[in-house]
Amino acid sequence: MTHTSDDSAPRRARPSLQAALIALAFAFGLWGLWQTFGTDAAGARRDRDDARAALRTQGAELETLRQQVATLRRSDQISRDANRDLQTALAERDEELAGLRADVAFYERLVGATSQRRGLSVHALRMQPQNGHAWHFTSTLTQNLNRGAVSHGRLTLAIEGTRGGRLETLSWADLRQQPSAPAVDYSFRYFQQVEGDVVLPDGFEPVRVTVRLVPRSGAAIEESFTWREATGEGAEPRPAS
Fold it and tell me: What is the Cβ-side half-sphere exposure of residue 221, based on CA atoms within 13 angstroms?
């Protein structure tokens, strides 16, 4: 009679144990991979979140700095504008004071107790450019010889210059562009500014201006000014004394 051995049962159990060990090892491997790559992924997400937060913070700081720069620029521009306006006002005030001092000196020379007595004269002449070839003249006439007396008369101008390389003198009629242009009347006790307009022909280069006064009584009076004096480019107006 033949007997079958029971060693086959352990042999059948041994492959099952090996499979379990392999599965367990595989599971540990998966766990290790998850720990490695899962942790790295989580860290990467945290790093990205931190970077985004830092970027947002820097963006907010940058916008704040931009606003501060814009505010400082506006403040600087306002300060510059205010300083420029102040400088302009000071310059205008200085010019006004200089004009007032000149007026006081003029009046003191003209009517002061120690002023020199002078008859009718042309104290100053000013020529100012207008449109085209037109010029506006302002002539200051004075007299303090006969205090209280009124001076009456007429004023005309003549201008000497060159045109086309030749000397030429423009009469009052030429300057006014009228054949029988009337003179400008004056009437004053101590001083008066007589004004009017003249026109210079094209190509004419003025050199000298002569003011001619014809009083109602007495001889005519002529005073000449260089063009530089008359346009303010030369000497100051002549003193009345």
Answer: 20
Q: Which of 86, 115, 144 is the last residue of a domain?
A: 115
108/121 same-domain check: no
Residue type, 121: S
Long-range contacts of residues 232-239, Cβ cutoff 8 Å, at least 24 apart: 232/126, 237/123, 237/124, 237/125, 237/140, 238/123, 238/124, 239/109, 239/123
Kindly report, residue by residue over 10-58, the tens digit of the pLDDT. Answer: 555 566 777 777 777 777 676 666 666 666 667 778 888 888 888 889 8
- Nearest C-alpha neighbor of 213 from the set 177, 180, 172, 168: 172
CATH of the domain at 204: 2.60.40.150
Residues 129 and 206 in one domain: yes
pLDDT band at 5 (very low <50, low <70, confident <90, very high): low
The pTM assigned to this predicted structure is 0.55
Cα separation, 131 vs 172, whole angstroms: 19
What is the dihedral angle through the alpha carbons of 23, 27, 33, 39, rounded to the nearest 10 degrees? 180
Residue type, 137: F
Containing 22, the helix (H) or strand (E) segment is: helix 8-33
- pLDDT tens by residue, 142-159: 987 776 789 999 999 999
Q: How far apart are CA 20 and CA 47, in angstroms?
A: 40
Which pLDDT score is estimated for 109?
Answer: 61
